């Protein structure tokens, strides 16, 4: 009988220890979740210095935004900021004849497309940096070849000056900070940009890196909650 009581006491102590450890783990997980930033940062220049603004504030309304533009996608439809009204979008710069990194970038953008395939709040936008080559017909062929969903992912062509100005002076996609360039200098970058519903840049990601793409997908989900 005495031995039985000792066994019961020992079992109770083991249960108590297990419950305490479990409780501490839950507290730690909750603490880690609550320690994440409440809002994604905002970006306004090529240095990509984060600005911590309150969404909806006057400061946020006056902050850097992607300006108006007018381009044409793979279906021949006109694409403007109004196309992405009430949508978050991810953007990059590519060209269809690129033999190197563009194929991997397209593959990673496909992963983003798949992650939000049924989400009307999320869209994708890829700018051709060789618009004289990448006509509507060429972009359409590229879209079909790469499983691009037309309503979800827009491949755009248009005026070269406008595309390069957007990339360099508004999306700040190139890494060579401080080096002066003009229209004759080729624009090519592996960066993806995350843009919110108010045309603010909220993230920059390496389009060749799987971990960076995973972070992009996580950040899109966070941005949807704002």
UniProtKB/TrEMBL annotation:
Superkingdom classification of source:
Bacteria
PROSITE patterns associated with the record: PROKAR_LIPOPROTEIN
Any single GO molecular-function term of the entry would be:
metal ion binding
Q: Where does Cu cation bind?
A: 98, 102, 188
Family annotation (SUPFAM superfamilies): Thioredoxin-like
The residue range of the signal peptide is: none
Disulfide pairings: 98-102
Q: Which Gene3D superfamilies match?
A: Glutaredoxin
Q: Which key words tag this protein in UniProt?
A: Copper, Disulfide bond, Lipoprotein, Metal-binding
Q: Name one Pfam family in it.
A: SCO1-SenC
Q: Which family does it belong to?
A: Belongs to the SCO1/2 family.
PANTHER family under this entry?
Answer: ELECTRON TRANSPORT PROTIN SCO1/SENC FAMILY MEMBER, LINALOOL DEHYDRATASE_ISOMERASE DOMAIN-CONTAINING PROTEIN
Name of protein? Conserved membrane lipoprotein
Organism, by scientific name, is: Zobellia galactanivorans (strain DSM 12802 / CCUG 47099 / CIP 106680 / NCIMB 13871 / Dsij)
């Amino acid at each position: 009988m005495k031995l039985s009581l000792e066994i019961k006491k020992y079992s109770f102590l083991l249960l108590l220890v297990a419950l305490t450890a479990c409780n501490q783990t839950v507290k730690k997980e909750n603490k880690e979740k609550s320690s994440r930033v409440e809002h994604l940062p905002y970006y306004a220049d090529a240095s990509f210095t984060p600005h911590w603004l309150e969404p909806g504030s006057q400061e946020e309304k006056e902050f850097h935004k992607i300006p108006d533009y007018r381009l044409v996608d793979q279906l021949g439809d006109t694409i403007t900021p109004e196309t992405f009204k009430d949508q978050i979008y991810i953007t990059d710069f590519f060209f269809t004849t690129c033999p190197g990194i563009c194929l991997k970038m397209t593959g990673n953008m496909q992963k983003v497309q798949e992650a939000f395939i049924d989400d009307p709040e999320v869209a994708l936008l890829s700018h051709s940096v060789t618009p004289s080559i990448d006509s509507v017909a060429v972009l359409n062929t590229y879209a079909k070849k790469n499983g691009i969903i037309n309503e979800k992912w827009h491949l755009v062509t248009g005026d070269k000056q406008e595309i390069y100005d957007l990339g360099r002076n508004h999306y700040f996609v190139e890494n060579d900070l401080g080096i002066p360039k003009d229209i004759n200098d080729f624009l090519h970058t592996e960066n993806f940009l995350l843009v919110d519903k108010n045309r603010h840049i909220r993230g920059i990601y390496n389009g060749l890196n799987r971990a960076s793409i995973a972070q992009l997908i996580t950040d899109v989900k966070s941005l949807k909650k704002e």
